[in-house]
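User: For this week's homework, look closely at the record that follows, marking any run of repeated tokens, and judge whether sequence predicts the tokens.
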Amino acid sequence: MNSVGLSMIVRDAAQWLPACLASAKPVTQEIVVADTGSTDATISIAESLGARVLSIPWRNDFAEARNACLAAMKSDWILSLDADEILDSSALSKFPSLLVSTHAAGFQVTIRNYVLSIDDRVWDRPATPNDSSLPLAAKYPAFVEHQNVRLFRRAADVYFVGRVHESVGPRLVELGRKLARAPFFIHHFGLAASAETRERKNRLYRELGRAKIHERPQDAQAHFELGLVEMDNFGNVDEALLLFQRACELNPRLGVAWFFRGLLLLRAGRLAESLQCLAQAERHGHATALVAEAQGDAHYNSGDFASAIKCYRLAVRREPDSPFFESKLGLARVRSGDATAGLRDLRRARDARPAAPALHDRLVLALVSLGLIQDAAEAAEAKLSAIDSHTPSDFLRTASLWAKSLDPARAAALLQVGLQVFPHNQELQYSLDELARSVGITKFSSALDSTT
């Protein structure tokens, strides 16, 4: 009574499907793929790899589609994957004994979502440097993990719920059945898809999220999920704030909703309200580095640098590998009067992640606030050498600092280099002309060598 079947819904998945099915085939005795309207080779690929293919209508409901596929399954256990996912090879040796010995009705499986930058986050989860040996994952610098129920016992009363962000997890919890943690993980590549693909998905998730709230108006998680879509994908801050507020009202214990509500209030400058929400996030178990950082930002922006330092220190303890928290700690120390320790923190953070523009900017800001203008000019120029993507403002600021350091030739060189990168930028040209007039010449000669 431990047969395993792979259950999937797909559409135009020819690019990813072969690797997905190949990863699951060694642990499954049944593969059922429900196609929702593919126009590429998805169906023929699935059939050639041993899958039984169902054609089902798509009615803007992921749970409905998954349940249609689930109804066709005959196996004792169901493994659920998306086409752009691969079951890690570590699962192969663990499935047989896992299913024989367990009393669980389902398993929370860790999903590695590959991202394009070590600085990316998913919701409020930080990225981890990629240590995978999987060839398809080699080009991605990092991944962000989350968990979902992807392996569960087939039963008539177990099914997916939620038009979008669907899962059997809430149903198993509702039934009071045991969930355990799976000793394997899944690779997911969808977050690193093309901008066009992500935009299309975002529009769909927004539409389905609104429908989900209409159907489940008392569902706090549904409000929270749509709030994230509005905030992250559409920049609709006012609507997102209302959705997070409603999620907190429906489930006051949903700490993550309190966090994002507090974060948006912080961005709106409503500092006291933000701190109240962030305290609620902590109180309800969402004690993360980002909560501590947001608390630190609220105190910093209100001028309470001592409290900001305490919060940033807490953020560093909670996520010690992130230089961004140490950088903010350093700036708060500088502003509180401890320049030596603050500059040490700022430089150490910058050196740990030299390609991160914000770490350079924070150091320059601190040096300017201390009146160390030449040091600030050198730090600003170091940024130009360290980062790959510049803006005209990077050159303007660096040149301005060199001019204030009484080195107009260096300032002119930076402006000329900026004009090489941005040849039609009028602000750079105007600044260069003004600098020439300020020193009594008509025009500067060529830029200094090796400026950037």
